[in-house]
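Suppose you are handed only these lines of text.
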Amino acid sequence: MKVIPIAASSDRGRTPAPAFQGGALADTLGRPMRDLRISVTDRCNFRCTYCMPREVFDSGYKFLPHAAILSFEEIARLAGVFVGLGVQKLRLTGGEPLVRRDLPGLISMLKDLKVETTLTTNGSLLAKNAVQLKKAGLDRVTVSLDSLDEATFRAMNDADFPVAKVLEGIDAAAAAGLGPLKVNMVVKRGVNDEHVLAMAERWRGTGHIVRFIEFMDVGSTNGWRMDDVVPSAEIIRKISARWPLEAIDANYPGEVAERWRYADGGGEIGVISSVTQAFCSSCNRMRLSTEGSLFTCLFAQSGHDLKGLLRGGASDEEIRNEIAAVWQARTDRYSEVRTLQTKNLKKVEMSYIGG
Ligand code: SAM
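From them, the structure of the protein bound to S-adenosylmethionine can be written out as follows.
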C-alpha cells in the first residue's frame, strides 16, 4: 500500500481572513496558542515500526520533492509571524530533522526571534552536529530511544541502528550544553514494555528526563491497536514499586508530559498519556508541515495551506490574519473523542506533520 501525504485543503483563491484585532488569541475552547512544531523534512533514516513502517515507507514511497518543501527563509518568516501572535516555543522535528542539510543555519535564523528553540531527534546524527547546533542557538534537545536492549532497539528502529550511537549523541549534546535532555521512549505492549525499568534506571540521577509515551494512533499506517498501548498509570506503578515516585506540578500550563519525581532525590521522569488520559483541554500546540500546511491537531485529517500565501506574495499581516483565523476557529479534541472507529480515519502521517 502506498500512502500519499494528505494534502492541505487548497486555500488559494479564497477570500482573505478578516483582520486580527489583536489581544490574547484563543480558540473556540478558550485555549491559547503557545507552541509551534515545525517539520523540516518528511524523510527519516529510521523506519520505526510504529511511525514509518518499512512496508509503507519503502523505496517506492514518494517523499516530498525539494521544491515542495518550505525553504529555511520561508520557515523563519512564518515562525516570526507565529511568534508575533504569541508563540513562545519552537520545536524542530520531522521526519528526522538532522537529515535536512545545514539545520544549524535554520536555527541561527530562528535565534533572532528570541523564543525557546528545541529539537526532537532520533540521535543518530547528533554526535557530529551537537556543537554546531548549540553555537547556532539551539536551547535544548529531546532524543528518542525506545530501548537500551540492542536487539529490541534495532528491531524497533528497523534500520539496524545501534543503541551505543544514540547514547554517544546524548552525551555529545549534554557536553555541548544542550541539556538537561529529554529521552523519549514509546512503549508498546509485548515489544519493549519489559525494558521500562532499565530505561528509568539508566537516567536516574543524571539530570536527564526520560519520558514514557503511550503508543498512539497517529497516521493510518502503524497498525495501532488499543491492546498494544501500555497505560501510563501502569508504568508509574511499575517504576514506583522499585523507586517510589511522587507527582509534581507542570512547568507551565499545557505541558504535554505529566511530571513525577523520585522520592529519594533521583530526579524526575515524565509520562505522555495521550490515549488513556487525553490532555486536549489544555492543548496549545500547532504543527507546520514540511510543505507549509498548518495543522491544529496531531490527529488531523487536513491542514491549512500557508505556503500558497507565502509564495503568492501575501504580506505578513495577511498571513497573520490567516493563522489567527485558523486558531480562532479551532475545535480539535481528537484524543477526548477517540473511539475504535476514529482510529480508522485517514489521518495525516506523523513524519509529514511533525512529531
Ligand atoms: N525523528 C525524530 C525522532 O525520532 O525523535 C523526530 C520525529 S518523531 C515522529 C517524534 C517523536 O514521535 C518520537 O519520539 C517518536 O518516538 C514519537 N512517535 C512516533 N510515532 C509515534 C506513535 N505512533 N505513538 C507515540 N509516539 C510516536
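What can we learn from it? The radius of gyration is 20 Å. The longest strand covers residues 116-121.
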